[in-house]
Amino acid sequence: MTTVTGPPTCRNLIDPLDFDYLVKCLMEEHGHDHAMATRIADQTLIFLKVVGPRPEKLSPSSLVDQGWHLFIVNTVAYTRFCELVAGRYIHHVPMKTSGPLAEREDRVLKTVRVLEKEGYQPDHVLWARSAGADCKNCCKGDHDDHPR
Fold first, then answer.
1. Is residue 100 situated within a structural domain?
2. Based on the structure, what is the number of domains in the chain?
3. Residue 147 lies in a domain
4. Is 1 contained in some domain?
5. Taking the model in full, what pTM does it have?
6. How far is 41 from 25, CA to CA, in rounded Å?
7. Average pLDDT in the 115-136 region?
8. What domain range includes position 106?
9. Spatial distance between the Cα atoms of 104 and 136, rounded to a whole number of angstroms
10. Which tens digits make up the pLDDT trace of 30-80?
């Protein structure tokens, strides 16, 4: 018998109640329907799992960044997840300036390539150029360039 599986996710790395809470927050704070909020939450976890242990700076799309912002405020669940996937807290370090749109989009495209290289399937609607990170972030912490 063949078992059919979908693309890899990281949902199993978080308590189901915490995942549901993140989905609910995305719906309430940003007006997403349940399906879209679930997709954003899934991609947020994948993004953090992949970038957490990596030294280079990678950026989420603006939609994935929404998930990251809302996950961070659930401090207990977020800290637990970070310790599990990266062995440390994954800081969100905004940059002082976003730079030109093309540079922001290039950072997001680089992130998509890294996610694919790691065996994950980016949701291309959420990672599309029009969804490029716009919160003035490079969004990958623990660097010396943290704004002061």
1. yes
2. 1
3. no
4. no
5. 0.83
6. 10
7. 79
8. 13-131
9. 9
10. 999 999 999 999 999 999 999 999 988 899 999 999 999 999 999 999 999
Q: Are the C-beta atoms of 94 and 136 separated by less than 8 Å?
A: yes
Instruction: Quote the CA–CA distance of 95 and 84 in Å, as a whole number.
Output: 26
Residue 60 and residue 77 in contact, taking contact as beta carbons nearer than 8 Å: no
**pLDDT score of 137:** 44
Per the domain annotation, does 109 fall within a domain?
A: yes
- Single-letter amino acid code for the residue at 59: S
Token pair, residue 94, equals 């905004």
Q: Are 29 and 22 in contact (CB under 8 A)?
A: no
Residue 77, φ and ψ in degrees, nearest 5: -65, -40
Which two tokens mark 60?
A: 């989420």
C-alpha–C-alpha distance, residues 96 and 118, integer Å: 30
Confidence of residue 6 (pLDDT cuts 50, 70, 90): low
Segment 9-34 mean pLDDT:
95
Task: Give the type of residue at 144.
Answer: D
How far apart are the C-alpha atoms of 109 and 70, rounded to whole Å? Answer: 23
The mean pLDDT value for 96-110 works out to 76
